[in-house]
Amino acid sequence: MLESLLNPQSIAVIGASRSPDKFGHRVVRNLVDCGFNGTIIPVNPNADSILDLACYPDLKTYGKEIDLSIIVVPAPLVVDAVRESITAGAKAVTVLGAGFKEVGGEGVDRENEIAEMCSNAGVRLLGPNSLGLINTENNLNASVARKMPSRGSISIFSQSGAVCSTIVDWAHGRHLGLAKFASLGNKADLNEIDFLEALAADEQTEVICGYLETISSGDGFVKAAEIAASTKPVIILKVGTTKAGGRAAIKHTGEVNSGSIGYGAAFKRSGVVRADTFGDLLDFATAFGLQPLPDGDRIVIITNAGGPGVMAVDAIDRLGLQMAEPGEASIKLLKGKFPPAAMVGNPIDLIGDAGPDRYVEAVTTLQDDENVDGLIVIMTNQERTQPAETARALKDCLKGEKPLLSVFMGGDEMSPGRDELAALNLPYFISPEQAAKAMKAMVDYSAWRKRPPRVVTRFPVNRRRVERVINRHIKRGHAEITEVQAKEILRAYDFNVPDGGITNNAEDAVEVAERIGYPVAMKIASYDIIHKSDVGGVKLNVANADAVRDTFELMMLRVNRRAPKSRVEGVYVEQMCSPGLEVIIGTRLDPDFGPMLMFGLGGIFVEVMEDVTFYLAPITQEEAMQMLKSTRSYKLLKERHGQAGIDLQAVASGLQRISQLVTDFPQIAELDINPFVVREIGNPPVVVDARMILSVANDNNG
Amino acid sequence: MLESLLNPQSIAVIGASRSPDKFGHRVVRNLVDCGFNGTIIPVNPNADSILDLACYPDLKTYGKEIDLSIIVVPAPLVVDAVRESITAGAKAVTVLGAGFKEVGGEGVDRENEIAEMCSNAGVRLLGPNSLGLINTENNLNASVARKMPSRGSISIFSQSGAVCSTIVDWAHGRHLGLAKFASLGNKADLNEIDFLEALAADEQTEVICGYLETISSGDGFVKAAEIAASTKPVIILKVGTTKAGGRAAIKHTGEVNSGSIGYGAAFKRSGVVRADTFGDLLDFATAFGLQPLPDGDRIVIITNAGGPGVMAVDAIDRLGLQMAEPGEASIKLLKGKFPPAAMVGNPIDLIGDAGPDRYVEAVTTLQDDENVDGLIVIMTNQERTQPAETARALKDCLKGEKPLLSVFMGGDEMSPGRDELAALNLPYFISPEQAAKAMKAMVDYSAWRKRPPRVVTRFPVNRRRVERVINRHIKRGHAEITEVQAKEILRAYDFNVPDGGITNNAEDAVEVAERIGYPVAMKIASYDIIHKSDVGGVKLNVANADAVRDTFELMMLRVNRRAPKSRVEGVYVEQMCSPGLEVIIGTRLDPDFGPMLMFGLGGIFVEVMEDVTFYLAPITQEEAMQMLKSTRSYKLLKERHGQAGIDLQAVASGLQRISQLVTDFPQIAELDINPFVVREIGNPPVVVDARMILSVANDNNG
After folding, report:
1. What gap in Å lies between CA A288 and CA A268, rounded to an integer?
2. ipTM of the complex
3. pTM score, two decimals?
């Protein structure tokens, strides 16, 4: 994939320059200096040769076909350069330099024009506003980067050129090898999804890192990321996920953005390792890039000082990792070898005078201990500390089956140790907390890799009935679906809805009430009244025929007085439901990722405590149960589940059924079953109230 | 304070050595090399001179008085060396090297012996197990540190020697000057409180940093920290605050520890800046050490790349800081000076080709903008970026009235810029998120500095009545105070307790009920029954005389059957309380910091959601209101406060009164008023149930 971009045989540089301070020169020099072994064709009407390469006034004069065209001319000349490249048979084009969508106005037109030309010709376009790309495997440096990274297994794509070059510079300082590197720029054609696909298939790439400000297509992203993450870690820093950050990102990229919740749900689903900060991105890249994944979450800490050991334990506890309990054999072995003042437990305190040998003993023993999944090794500079020697000794004794993250703490005195670790391709961290955080990311990703296969249950439902209700609403331009109609839809998806009926006069109401049995609930039915209680449109526990008559007439009177303009369908008379635990289940539409399922305990928990979880539709049974478990109030659910036997599986099943509903009917923008009253096993939960909103406008437009 | 330790005129080194690899040599060499200008007296019976200094077999032979004695002999010889020092008139002693409390056994005895000797002689002791101390003001390096820090304004004390030397090494790499430095070791005498007091008074010290594993005295710590923090920032990393971390710290220091809640409350109260990680400690030290405090929380971001700008905005939003809105004049001025592609808002994007001049324009303008409280300046390496020049230009244009935190992102290419910043005494950070976190710490501390004076209200109470109840319990060895007695105590502190009385037979019960009016609540009264409901010992809403009789007899029957061994005082008959909002107020005893007040909304919120706040007693009215405000469920309280008029001040007043109660009676280990039913203004809250536990054992022992 992206063969002509990543493995071209011939490259034209349109806008090649002889002035060393110009991008048009830098690109040619990078190609030459880094050892690209295909043909380089500099194009410049005013030069005969550049860096000893024959220069052509245009591609027509050159006359042969090219694979990749790198365009470095000023923005107003780019359209012509792209046309010329396509004519010359280019299969991929990279446009460096700014002056496109990001500046608005004619920049937008210019970008659309080149994107369309490329698309029509079947040519892939990287950029515009890109810094180019690098493939260390074949010494291809088709970028303006000032440094060629050394060869390695980490590939990077970034929407920000500045972040690209920052990462390359940082990787260089860390002796960290890179595989592929792509500056996505404005993503007029090639975007993160293309690179996720290409890098997933790329044998050189073992870890994918991405920096994103927008996602080009939520659906495509989730699919591509899930496939990629199934074979190698995908670490992404997505910025602009807070409210203020979102506003700033819109200014910068001109695009609206999902919030943190949408990304959280999408990343969780697709196994993406989420970096919350730039520091995380770098730390995680190092850990995943240089160490194997842990099999579980039991971590042992090896240190030559008590204090930093406790820092690591605090971090492990806060992050929800487990302190490993090394086996008796390990303990005995190490106790025999260490001085009596050393503490052999977890942390293992080798004490201040530990040289490389004690580190080696501890690591050699514990990497073979079946009670240990990962190792954090801490070194502070004390009297007999030998940072560089210890780094080498660690490298020699490591089997590479369990991750070892080193923390070499301090300034200049520790630098030789850190440099040695870097040179030996071992990760290092400055503080115990950073190492623990990277370990946690590895543990979580490793658990995701072992997840059971996703099987989405299909329930037998009456789809046609729902279609009828929805089409009727859309035809009439009604976005809001009334409670009565929403309940009809939910009944068609096998929800337990109280028996009831719409009535148009007091006698009708009594008839329905007599049929379903007292007490009943009575509610006004109107498209125009969303908050029924506010206009006196709800009465519960109506106990007999007389009361039903009185309620009907009083309700009509009050609603007419308080909401005179609303069209009233009648009064809905409904069975009262026996009490249980009130939960909310529903869906929201994320701008990037489509329908997301929502779960929370009763009103206060969702509204005040914000104790609510989201998951991308469609969900499996495991994921639905996971939604329940990841609320803070799950404790309460579980307790009640134990005692009176609240049916948690029934809640999960409700989530799965609305997942199926919103997948079947993407027109549903929002659905709230609130409250969904959950009862003991054998007594299915009841939809007490429901509302639904359609995206009518979109549908009319579409 | 600590004059003879920090400013000695003469220093003896007992155990001075000629072998360069021994601590006994290093100390003498550090004293000499760093330029200590008093008298140095090496003591070693086997040497005539060390480093050209005359050496004495013992202090008696030297014959003159000394100020400070540094003891570097092996642990078994330390007792004699301390005795010799005291005899020679030493006013302070430092014991380096291990072999004391931390090894247990005779190490403990040894430590106790030297501590007692010093205490009896009025001599201050640093250590044992210390690495020594440094005072850059007078070139005193009385430590085994391998480096002498340059002179600066940051002082450090640390309980871990390894963390001490790590910080010194790090500070050196950052060109960060230090003032005083003390390795506390085992804290047999001098501890963090002494250094907080000394450093608060020290003119050279502008920022105090501490690393602690234990606190020597909670009370003393809070007092000393509050006084110190009132004049200069006190930044502390306290480890071992998680459950697992606490266990690890006990192993390391042998001492039990408060949890995170206790420290959280103590630090909040005393204005300590809490570092959660080692990275925070270093970052905060740099920010506070090198920049002025902000006046408010409105932050502006200046960047040469959009992406990192958005990272900073995300961080600002997450941390609860405000994005500044620069004034119109600033915007206009900058728009006139910058190229059209630059974005002048917040963030201010100087775009990729920004040289030092644009940074200077932005900083010069915004540091004078009254809508801006702090500046974060971000630089990525792009085409025309000049890191070192920009660093110098920033230094030149800074007025030093508002904090500016720089983020120079990248590897080797940015190092010259970072080095220049360090050399110019400007802080730098590697990622925008780190800078934002440091800014947040400064904003919070600055707000604390402006807090209103703490005035603890004293309510008129009946203290003697409480004394009687408590003494009676203590005499009988009853730790648990029954509901009835607890309510008597609370009534004496002016709480609104429902009317009621203990009754011993059914007719008594009816008599009490008739007096207070129906309906009544009836509850079993017994020292031995804590969970009254479990044994059928609670009945609410008893409506008439007959029901009271039935309830009395049934309750006695059931309690006798279900808890046959419990001593029953009778049945408490009590007025039923009208409904309201249920909250929990109470106290807990922290092992380090004594009584802490507790507040939370009803049962589920505290138990399931852990939505509960703690504050050290005694509290002021502001602090009590702050406790309410810092729960997540405050939203709900405020809403109800708006609607039906829940009396929030009455809850605060309840907290203040139990604060007074536990301050007056330190014997109270635990108190729960649960529920405390809060109602509208004018209708005071009611103590519906209460329990109290005394620390009887302690009291008997004491």
Report:
1. 18
2. 0.90
3. 0.91
